[in-house]
Amino acid sequence: MSFLSELFGTEKPIIGLLHLKALPGDPLYYPGGSIASVVDAAKRDLDALQSGGVDGILITNEFSMPYQKRVSAVTLAAMGCVIGSLADQMSLPWGAEAIYDGDATIELCAAVDAKFTRCMFTGAWAGDLGLIDRDFAHTMRLKSALRLDDLKLFHFVTSEGEVYLNDRTTAQIADSIMFNCMPDALVVGGEAPGRGPSSDLVGSVRGAASGVPVVCGTGCREETVADVFSRCDGAFVGTCLKRDGIFSESVDVRRVASFMAAARDARERMGEG
Fold it and tell me: Which of 45, 151, 157, 184: CA 20 to 30 A from 105?
């Protein structure tokens, strides 16, 4: 049994993504943005995710596009402000992520008392943002200095939009992350947003994971959740829970409830709680 049962109450959790609207400093925030409107939208999405029955929630700055390799102070401050406004309403295990920036993510989690997070913590990548070079040794020392001993780290092994800058296989990358980086869980996604990982890819990562949970990061839908559960230890789910499955829309409680009914049925058939 992994930490997933203790944290989420199941070995196959569905972690719903709460995408914060554009924040101060983000290009999409202007004109006419306000923190009050970001908070209001986040509260509606939080209520829909919790009422619909997800097992956990990850709060991300999803609309801070184009994403920063080093997240700015104003973004972190705004995220802290919004998350603080949600705290009294949160009844599920929850985490936070400052997209692409492992150090900023750790600092954010310390400020808001998050229980888990995920990020592209390791490796050197190239993509639309240019070169992304992570320093996980520094990130872990920051986590230690902030006394975040219980914070669970979900490590991306793959990326939707970047290419890893060497010729190692994904299985070899997962194996070295296991040896060097002490992950609590690994996250595997498809080659593009909305696409799920192939069975071969998940199998190769699981073979290197040595008992650490392997979680689906992209492409899990109501009609595929049973198949995802047969290969992965849960999933992060975002856009498909929104109205009409559209990224820019709000979370739809009916879609969440329908998705979670399918997830519970799949877990029961597998003998999971």
Answer: 45
